[in-house]
Amino acid sequence: MNFFKRNKTKDDKGAMVVPAPATSRNRPFSFINSYNTLTKAEYDLYKSLRETVPIIDAAIAKTVRLMGDFNIIADDKSAQKTLDRFLKNVPVGGGNYGIYSFIMTYLNELLTYGQAVGEIVLSKNNMEIAALYNADFNDVEITTDGNPLNLIVKNRGTNAPAPYQNLIVTTLLNPEPGTVKGTSILKGLPFVSSILIKIFTSIGTNWDRVGNVRYAVTYRPESGSSAVTSTQAQQIADEWSKAMRSTEVCDFVSVGDVNIKVIGADNQMLDCDVPVRHLLEQIIAKLSLPPFVLGISWSSTERMSTQQADILTSELEHYRSIISPVIRKIAGTFLRLNGYDEGVTVNWEHINLQDELELSQARLNNAQALEIEERVNREYRTEVEYEEGTSY
Hints:
46% of the residues lie in helices and 14% in strands.
């Protein structure tokens, strides 16, 4: 199997089918307004969301980085060095090396599209793993063979099942019952994001109008001078245009009743802070990230920030439990090809060192309190014994 080459489609007569170029849109990213669920265009929609709304792209990128690193421990201790060398140096797409790069790209696809597909590429002699490859969803689709428990990866060009299904890793994020379709964490955001884009587009248009100032020049001729009105108006227009095109400071001098005012200066721009914040709150709530992680300084107490960090930790633990079977399958396949027992254990690093720091600080405070309490008790007993001895 090879996903590197994208298959081209042909019509019934065998002629090559060439997709028509996309038509122009009225405004940037207007594709979001044409959102239609359960279609192939959904992948383009989620990709467009990440390109359009920076906070969505930042949230997914930070979630992937917060997953942390992991170690794979082989049950067969004699295979540990060989396994470590493979996991560190295995080629991955994009010129990267190591299973960590593969898993981070795999998780990025999983969070964005709700499903991810990867391939274990064998060498020509089929005796060892040559590379790990993250498949593009423009090339593949996930179906079943009639049994909902058996996932089959098909090639979109030929609509035929890909060979060597046992070398393909597939993950669905929170699939809906009775389907083989994962649920993206961006589901529910197209409508909110479309409103946010409209606000930003309007702001940009208004600033184009306000920043590039336009003037209205009004000439009111005296009564009885209508015969020369057109000539005077043309002269005023020419001189005004010359003054505006000049790169140096230039004064405009006119005779008669001439009024000059800025177009739109009397209109007040709408305040967008409140609606934009409401929309961002909806987006951040869906992405399950605390605002401070994204650099948003909304008012929050220290206890609230701690609770939000705990919620984020539970989300990351959930993603780790979904990714771990993929890691075990890749490592187990390598060990089996090299004649070792395929049993492995995935150990993830601690998500947040701040938790351990707080626990250590709490233990230190308890130890100091206990030491102070014992010292006070000793001093009190010594004082009581001294008073009892002097009373005799």
